[in-house]
Amino acid sequence: MEEVEQFDNISVEELAEELPENSPRYVVLSYELNHSDGRKSFPLVLVNWAPTSSEIGLLTLHASALINFQNTASVSKVVEVRDGPEGLTKEVIDSKLS
């Protein structure tokens, strides 16, 4: 696996628009999480971008490497996104981390 691109200061919605519509990707995201008690934390989140419009062979290969990638990146939180850009929003990530 290789780093394809790196983005700084990009919103979750902008990131969703940058990802390909027909090809799965892993995205490691340092995410600003605002807690109900006013604290902020910055957990690493693995976005498993696997649009349903991707080729079955690519999705199978991508799925088979997920656990290995998660362990290599030392990420405990995984957000599955299959719905395209509509499925990757700040609200979706917040709900998965709460």
Structure description:
With 98 residues, this protein is an alpha+beta fold. It has a single domain (12-92), classed as Severin (3-Layer(aba) Sandwich), CATH 3.40.20. The chain contains 4 helices and 5 strands, in the order αββββααβα. It has helices spanning 12-18, 56-64, 66-73, 90-97, and strands at 25-30, 33-34, 40-41, 44-49, 77-81. The strands form 2 sheets. The protein has a 3-stranded mixed beta sheet with strand order 1-4-5, sandwiched between helices. Strand 2 and strand 3 form a beta hairpin. The longest helix is centred in the middle third of the chain and has 9 residues, at 56-64. The chain is globular and about 45 Å long. It is found in: Cytoplasm; Nucleus. InterPro entries: ADF-H (IPR002108), ADF-H/Gelsolin-like_dom_sf (IPR029006), GMF (IPR011171). Keywords: Cytoplasm, Nucleus. Residues 1-98 form the ADF-H domain. This is ADF-H domain-containing protein.
